[in-house]
């Protein structure tokens, strides 16, 4: 499963750290991430909501975990629902 964790703080690092331990996760990404997160996941330097949703669709991301509230307030969940095929 390809997983994207959105965020760059300590909470997001904990989410990435735990996801990295799962045998179900084949590829782990973080946007925008930080140097500590970069040790565990590939960083995606995208912060714009629409661009991030489009990237997730292009890269066939299976699961998106959003740590901070700000991307949700900016409509990330809505954009992901419009961009990704849920099924």
Automatic annotation (TrEMBL):
Organism taxonomic ancestry: Bacteria, Thermotogati, Deinococcota, Deinococci, Thermales
Name used for this protein in its record: Phosphoribosylglycinamide synthetase N-terminal domain-containing protein
Iron-sulfur keyword on record: no
Domain of life where this protein originates: Bacteria
Gene3D superfamilies with a match to the protein in the record: 3.40.50.20
Gene Ontology biological-process annotations: purine nucleobase biosynthetic process
This protein's UniProt keywords: Plasmid
PANTHER family: PHOSPHORIBOSYLAMINE--GLYCINE LIGASE, PHOSPHORIBOSYLAMINE--GLYCINE LIGASE, CHLOROPLASTIC
Domain Phosphoribosylglycinamide synthetase N-terminal: 1-81
GO MF annotation list: phosphoribosylamine-glycine ligase activity
């Amino acid at each position: 499963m390809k997983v994207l964790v959105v965020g760059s703080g300590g909470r997001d690092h904990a989410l990435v750290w735990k996801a990295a331990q799962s045998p179900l996760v084949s590829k782990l990404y973080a946007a925008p991430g930080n140097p500590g997160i970069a040790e565990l996941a590939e960083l995606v330097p995208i912060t714009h909501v629409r661009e991030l949703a489009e990237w997730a669709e292009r890269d066939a991301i299976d699961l998106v975990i959003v740590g901070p509230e700000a991307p949700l307030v900016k409509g990330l969940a809505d954009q992901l629902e419009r961009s990704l095929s849920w099924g």
